Amino acid sequence: MVGAEDPETFFETAPPLRDADAVRTKLQEFNARNSIISAGGVDRRPTVCVTSGGTTVPLEQRCVRYIDNFSSGHRGAASTEYFLKAGYAVIFLHRRGSCQPYCRFLPDDSFLKFLDVNEESKVQVAESHQTAVKESIWDYCKVGYGGGSLLKLQFTTIFEYLQLLRMVATSVSTVGQRGMFYLAAAVSDFYVPWDSMAKHKIQSAGGPPEMRLSQVPKMLAVLRDQWAPLAFCVSFKLETNSDILVQKADMALNKYKMNIVVANLLATYKEQVIIVTNGARNTVRRRNSDEDLEEQIIKLLAQKHSKYICGSQMDATRVQTEL
Ligand code: 9Z3
């Protein structure tokens, strides 16, 4: 196996994030905006990091070609809307160009179909889409931007994604148990380490390239043990074979000490998921074509997270009483 399987080496050899300072500032401002000053001191709104879309694996340092995956970012974008509705502050860590909250119909459908031109040659929202557009704008302004409770950060490559996730995790760790990770991004399992990557475009004259991929280090373990040990962690498990899905989800739950693993199959992931917790499996199905499956998922997760926060507060009170 070539290159880094261990997280330290991955970060040491990755090309540094170009806008790391700006991201740090955005995270600090976001934290300040979402602190609630009350009589008892400074309190913090529950905060979730939603990861969304797929990471790419560049094959050349001056990248012309890369390995990609199918994820559209729809799940992450829809989930972000429901987290905001549930009162969470959301860090939406997403793939550049993927689906966005409140405009999930883009980029597949042209926005032009929502518009028409009236008799005075003025552009207006088409009558048939008035209600949908109005509702989206209201939600977008109210929870998304007006309240400052949505922070969007973008990645393309696996290098950018993991460096951003580490920064976000360190920041979310400041809210302790009130923090949640909802890891819906489809993250590459294999990559070409930066220092063994071709510098320039691989030439076809050299014949079919031979390259050996390395395993991307398992950052879920590092997230749980080091970056944000108190946070409520929800990871996703995607498989194509239904025979191994739940077993693999169970393994992830135990190995990475996740609070919940959401298991889904490529063939049915838009229709149903299995919520796997320690000792329980709960299938959540989309009830009709007008409903988002994510609405039910987030409702369930917010309840479980709230219990988790209460449980830890009760533990803290018990310790204080015993002292
Ligand atoms: C998922 O399983 C998501 O539900 C989907 C959403 C990627 C299927 P879309 O973005 O699709 O709405 O088009 N995400 C996690 C996939 C993943 O890479 N999981 C890893 C694994 O299965 C663990 S981190 O090993």
From TrEMBL:
GO molecular function terms attached to this record: phosphopantothenate--cysteine ligase activity
Domain DNA/pantothenate metabolism flavoprotein C-terminal, chain residue ranges per copy: 167-298
Single GO BP term: coenzyme A biosynthetic process
Gene3D superfamilies to which the protein is assigned, alphabetical: CoaB-like
Pfam family, one: DFP
Protein name: DNA/pantothenate metabolism flavoprotein C-terminal domain-containing protein
CC terms in the record's Gene Ontology section: cytoplasm; nucleus
PANTHER family: CORNICHON-RELATED
Recorded family membership: Belongs to the PPC synthetase family.
Species this chain originates from: Triticum aestivum
